[in-house]
What does this fold into?
Amino acid sequence: MNLDQIQPICIAGEWRLGQGDLYATHYPATGAAVTRLHAASLDDVEQAIVGAQRAFETSGWAQRKPHERAAVLYRIAQLIRERSEELAQLQRLDNGKPIKETRNLVASAAGTFQFFAAACETLEESITPSRGDYLTMSVYEPMGVVAAITPWNSPIASEAQKMAPALAAGNAVVVKPAEITPLAALALARICDEAGLPRGLVSILPGKGSLIGDALTRHPLVKRVSFTGGTRTGKHIARIAADKMMPVSMELGGKSPTIVLEDADLDHAVAGVLYGIFSSSGESCIAGSRLFVARPLYDAFMARLVEGAKGIRIGDPADEATQMGPLISAAHRESVERYVDMGLSEGGRLLTGGERPQGAAFEQGYFYTPTIIVGLGNDARLCQEEVFGPVLVALPFDDEAALVRQANDSLYALAAGIWTRDFQKAWRLGRAIQAGTVWINTYKQFSISTPFGGWRDSGLGREKGRLGILQYMEQKALYWGL
Ligand code: NAD
It folds into this structure.
């Protein structure tokens, strides 16, 4: 990808300039422009969807045997791996994550295409027991054109998680990446072309969500929206979907509790809690942003945690040693700062952070220090609202019943972490905590074969897992008279 040129976008298999406004993307570590592109226009949306429907009907992709579709998806996985360093650097420029993290995201994208290639080969059609003079069979059909709307925080992985199962199922997919991080999605579409995916099945439409995402969602030819992003946007999309009677899947926000019991392995727990909140600068839906520590351990644990937070290496995302990069934008950093101010005005006390790091290296980028706040109740806004930044709120707890009540007292229910050596307590708490994912003595660990999603305001449906492909298919019953 030549970043000096105005980037073409991918509309129904054709690479051309978008017809919307010209804008630049910026590297969050320096604020410098990375590339320029024209956003998609409403006319581009129409062309992408109509072209996707045509490709779905005429390319023969949906009719190809599963192992033939799988071969193309395996090739996509292979090309991602061959270009992994280039893609990781592109992703770093897109959203400023440290290179070590973006390499993992690229590896995850390759693994996702590989996994769903296999999943489409193993999709089972089931015959129900004979009831006498007929038998029935359940089969799965692709839906047609599906839309994938993704956020800026983990671009290539988010897009792969939607594109791979949608394509494996035989559909065409129109992707609306976040306006500010379009590069990884565009690179992925180039790879799809090169791997031999029929043209037109993939479109990439960067642009404003309220215009392009909204038009995609409302379009009658779009048969499903798979959305990852904020809860407010998710609810807006779900309302439109209700009118169309269109299925949606929603991966939304979180305010995930991490819990440290008295018997936890402390080295392990300190490292895990720090990683859970401060990796990706806390710009992660699963960030462990509410910490509950058993009271007898609280003072000692917090002292170690603060020492650990102060030792996190903030800096240039291109540096292999960097542990935390900048936030995505100046506006987002200001939003994080407002949350910290609000927490302090609610009665919170700063143990560390709460400021921009000093020094020439930090002047241009949107850096912020790892921040820990104590002294708030679980009902404080800072404990209830998603900050989406490197801000941890810590609370002591006295007994298990109160802990479970508080941990579950949230509109969100995406993830949780438990640190303990006692497997019976881990089991009991793991079952009692309401969340789509509970990590025990680990955090932010992912397996593509394990379903992922949230409860309540954290989402609807599950991505990943062998059955993740079924989201993109309609089930049909065939009856056979005997
Ligand atoms: P966002 O909701 O503002 O945007 C997400 C996507 O939706 C973007 O592509 C945006 O352009 C589009 N969009 C915005 N308004 C739209 C509309 N009216 N109609 C259709 N599309 C629209 O979220 P964000 O700020 O980009 O991302 C951060 C949020 O994403 C956080 O809340 C985070 O928790 C969540 N997230 C969730 C997961 C998960 O798997 N649960 C993963 C990553 C991020």
